[in-house]
Amino acid sequence: MTALSAVALTEPVTEPRYRLLRDSGLVAGRYLRVLRMNPGRLIYPLVQPIVLLVLFTSVFGKLAVSGHQGSGAYREFLIPGIIIQNAVLTAPIAGLALLRDAGSGLADRFRSLPMSRPAVLIGRLAYDAMLFAIQAMLLIATAFGLGLSVRTGPAGVVAIALIAVVFGASVSVASAWLALMIGDIETAERVMYFPAIALNFVSSAFAPVPYLAAWMQPIARVNPVTAAADLVRSLAAGGAAARPAVMLGCWVLALAVVPGTLAVRRWQSAA
């Protein structure tokens, strides 16, 4: 009898309705243990975003944009876009990690265990959500030092962090499906960031939509990055947030539900 079989026989049976939650927690815990053994993995998701925020605001912070007059006014327009940009650029890590696990044989080991099939993806998503939350709070704290003001108070700060977490997690789901579709880790490492870069630049992250090239404007208006950045700006300025909130909600569902279902199926076939 193998060790895995012994574990399967001795482990108490878990109710089906709790199994997904339990298994997802175990998978998330595994990623945390890997992170503890290799803390250098935090450099990209936590250190690089702060560097990008400081560089972008230092280089472009004094530009003037219509409707944002005054010293440092463009900085207040730019910082929300940078916060969302970093969430999008961090999201491909999830897909690449799952692809490495599938290629290492971990998927086969998971499949041999009596565990819920979606638990691997949900556990990875929970781990990424934790990273997005830490990233968002670090970026917001740094942004305050660079001139960001949130007129909606502490509730607005929490809402901005939550937007970054939810949006980043939904993009992570889509990136997981894309990476598993590509199937090859070296190809995925080269391809995964193209959509992320395009989403950021063809949006209102760095400039209002009317300032973009004419061919970009229709795309930018329906871009999920535009919805997320505009919602953060509305919360920071205390303005109307209903329209970007509805648009972002639709995008979060679109990015999470269909790609998430397809990613689970792809992971099972990869296993």
Descriptive account of the structure:
It is a single chain. The protein is mainly alpha-helical. It has one domain. Helix content is 76%, strand content 0%. The chain contains 13 helices and no strands. Helix 4 crosses helix 12. The longest helix has 30 residues. The radius of gyration is 20 Å and the shape is globular. The N terminus is likely disordered.
Structure summary, number of beta strands: 0
Share of residues in helices: over 70%
Helix tally?
13
Low-pLDDT sequence parts: 1-14
Instruction: Please give the radius of gyration in angstroms.
Output: 20 Å
Q: What is the number of independent domains? A: 1
- Overall outline: globular
Broad structural category: mainly alpha
Q: Which range does the strand content fall in? A: under 5%
